[in-house]
Design a protein that fits this description.
The chain has about 70 residues and is α+β, with helices and mostly antiparallel strands. The protein is about 30% helix and about 25% strand. Strands 1-2-3 form a 3-stranded antiparallel β-sheet. Strand 2 and strand 3 form a beta hairpin. It is globular.
């Protein structure tokens, strides 16, 4: 097995969404390739996979949030 990847290669995109955050019925993880091809993994809200998707969504949101420096 390969080591854990913390960043995506250039041109790749990953998105996560959950019912709790945006009113969707299902949880979804969407991976988009540099050429625009999309793979989407769906889970129902009561499945453990949906909880993991929520955690990923929160982590991605925290990662993309602007940071401010305190002097």
């Amino acid at each position: 097995m390969s080591p854990t990847v913390q960043t995506l290669p250039p041109g790749w995109r990953i998105e996560a969404r959950s019912p709790k955050s945006r009113g969707f019925e299902d949880c979804a993880i969407r991976i988009t390739s540099p050429t625009g091809e999309v793979v989407e993994y769906l889970a129902r809200p009561y499945q453990v996979e949906c909880d993991v998707t929520r955690q990923l969504e929160q982590a991605l949101s925290a990662q993309s949030a602007p940071t401010t420096a305190v002097a």
